[in-house]
């Protein structure tokens, strides 16, 4: 099949490509054509909408020791914090009452599995739900837990959950984590969340050491096979205080290529899955800031945004075609976000973007997620 045939096939029917064709799509030689096709599918399935949403990162204490993560438990250079229950509930109330049109709030922290932490989160969810009601969505991003824990949080009032698989390749996953971490256990958590009735989000990192284009194509197939509702993908950025990132840096052409790969993955995922929610990660924002990278034919410049993991809730702005809010973005930045089919969310902790999914399960798709 010709290159043009693959692009047309992808845009016409979801899940239509073979693994090889999907890999070719990720590596598409004409970046503008790839983005244009992705945006056309987004317009057809979603419409020309961009919305800003926020999150509450209520703690960075974590019991896991992932080799790439800056808040891994062995990193003694991290300044740890955790908000109190009253502070978290008050932040959620401010989000609901702020007048910016929040549809939901995300509660995110490092992973803690003890009963005290489980009960702490359960109490917070219940209090927010009792105050806000079912119309105000509660999204959790609190890591791997037992199915009983997920069910407790769901019964307390949570609606959605984000748990990134990081990679669909178990061998690559093993290189990113200590020996006591299991890819199969993480996948099983995603399936447990579905059984508990959550809308389920997951995602991967692109540009990992040893990762291939075939791995990335398999990641997109994984999203389809697991019937994922929302996808949050971010480029891998080395952290100097981690085993995987020590001694590495990401700058210049390498940073631009990493940014481009992240955008390629968003476009290819849109073209393969069509109507799924897609997020733009804080890592994308960081690379936009530091590179001023050429993305397709546009010089992309995103506004400044603090990347520190602090406590924050963000305002929400809705962007539609021709809106004054969208007009205030730099022209090239607005065009780039349209081209990768994103709904953008930004706050003091970073940037988030999401896509509204249409279809038979579209009764409530107001997503807001934590970091990728």
Offer a concise description of the structure.
The protein is of the alpha/beta class. The chain has helices at residues 3-12, 19-26, 31-45, 85-97, 115-132, 147-156, 170-176, 183-195, 213-225, 252-273, 282-291, 324-327, 331-339; strands spanning 49-51, 56-57, 104-108, 137-141, 160-162, 199-202, 205-206, 230-235, 277-280, 294-295, 298-299, 318-320, 344-347, 350-353. The protein is built from 13 helices and 14 strands.
Describe the protein's architecture and organization.
- The longest helix is centred in the C-terminal third of the chain and has 22 residues, at 252-273.
- The strands form four sheets. Strands 2, 3, 4, 5, 6, 7, 8 and 9 form an eight-stranded parallel sheet that branches. A two-stranded antiparallel sheet has the order 1-12. It has a two-stranded antiparallel ribbon with strand order 10-11.
- Helix 3 packs parallel to helix 10 (252-273).
- The chain has helices spanning 3-12, 19-26, 31-45, 85-97, 115-132, 147-156, 170-176, 183-195, 213-225, 252-273, 282-291, 324-327, 331-339, and strands at residues 49-51, 56-57, 104-108, 137-141, 160-162, 199-202, 205-206, 230-235, 277-280, 294-295, 298-299, 318-320, 344-347, 350-353.
- Helices cover 41% and strands 13% of the residues.
- The chain has one domain (3-353): TIM Barrel (Alpha-Beta Barrel).
- The protein has 372 residues and is α/β, with parallel strands linked by helices.
- The chain has 13 helices and 14 strands.
- Mean pLDDT is 80; it is low at 297-372.
- Helix 4 (85-97) links the parallel strand 2 and strand 3.
- The chain is globular and about 55 Å long.
């Amino acid at each position: 099949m010709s290159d043009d045939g693959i692009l047309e096939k992808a845009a016409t029917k979801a899940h239509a490509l073979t693994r090889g064709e999907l890999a070719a799509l990720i590596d598409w030689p004409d970046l503008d054509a790839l983005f244009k096709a992705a945006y056309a599918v987004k317009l057809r399935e979603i419409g020309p909408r961009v919305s800003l949403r926020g999150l509450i990162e209520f703690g960075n204490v974590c019991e896991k020791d992932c080799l790439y993560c800056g808040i891994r438990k062995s990193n003694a250079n991290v300044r740890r914090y955790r908000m109190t229950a009253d502070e978290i509930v008050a932040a959620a109330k401010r989000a609901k009452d702020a007048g910016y049109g929040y549809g939901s709030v995300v509660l995110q922290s490092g992973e803690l599995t003890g009963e005290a932490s489980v009960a702490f989160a359960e109490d917070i969810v219940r209090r927010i739900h009792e105050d806000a009601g079912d119309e105000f969505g509660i999204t959790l991003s609190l890591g791997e837990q037992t199915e009983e824990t997920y069910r407790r949080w769901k019964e307390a009032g949570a609606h959605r959950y984000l748990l990134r698989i990081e990679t669909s390749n178990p061998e690559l996953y093993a290189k990113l984590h200590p020996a006591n971490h299991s890819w199969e256990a993480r996948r099983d958590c995603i399936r447990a969340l579905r059984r508990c009735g959550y809308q389920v989000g997951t995602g991967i990192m692109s540009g990992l050491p040893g990762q291939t284009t075939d791995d990335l194509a398999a990641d997109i197939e994984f999203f389809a096979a697991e019937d994922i509702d929302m996808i949050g993908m971010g480029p891998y950025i080395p952290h100097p205080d981690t085993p995987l990132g020590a001694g590495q840096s990401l700058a210049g052409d390498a940073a631009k290529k990493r940014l481009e790969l992240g955008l390629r993955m968003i476009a290819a995922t849109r073209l393969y899955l069509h109507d799924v929610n897609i997020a733009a990660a804080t890592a994308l924002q960081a690379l936009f800031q530091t590179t001023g990278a050429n993305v397709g034919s546009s010089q992309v410049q995103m506004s400044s945004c603090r990347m520190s993991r602090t406590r924050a809730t963000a305002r929400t702005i809705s962007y539609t075609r021709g809106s004054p809010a969208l007009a205030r973005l730099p022209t090239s930045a607005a065009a780039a976000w349209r081209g990768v089919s994103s709904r953008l969310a930004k706050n003091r902790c970073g940037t988030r973007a999401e896509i509204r999914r249409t279809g038979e399960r579209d009764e409530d798709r107001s997503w807001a997620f934590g970091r990728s």
